[in-house]
Amino acid sequence: MSRDYKQFPDDDNGNVLWQMHEDGDDLTEAHEIEYSIAFSSEEKADQCAIYLLKEEQKITLFEDEDSNEWVVTIYVYMEPEYEDIVDLEEWFTKIAGQFEGEYDGWGCMAYVYDDEEDDDLVLEEEQKAN
């Protein structure tokens, strides 16, 4: 199958979505997509987390021990469509800037059925970082 560049543009987001599609992931099914914002300050991460909770977002907040950064992860249950992902990235980038953080990309679990393994569900993680 040839790539439809309207559905899968030639950029990081389009490339990840195309790879998910090529791997057999059903992009018409909703996925829980994780968007991340990184902070050097716990105080700013806390402020951002509270803001996102007030915006009725599902989040987690943790300290990454390797980088000593505080990471807010936002979980959005949605069909992984290019335009929607770009819109959310823009919104999360704006929010990150308001709290002196940096938008750090998105990822999700890909649900792929492998016919050679008796239709057992095979989980693969797809990641995209800016």
Automatic annotation (TrEMBL):
Residues 11-108 form the Regulator of ribonuclease activity B domain. SUPFAM superfamilies: Hypothetical protein VC0424. It holds the Pfam family RraB. Gene3D superfamilies: RraB-like. InterPro entries: RraB-like_sf (IPR036701), RraB_dom (IPR009671). This is Ribonuclease E inhibitor RraB.
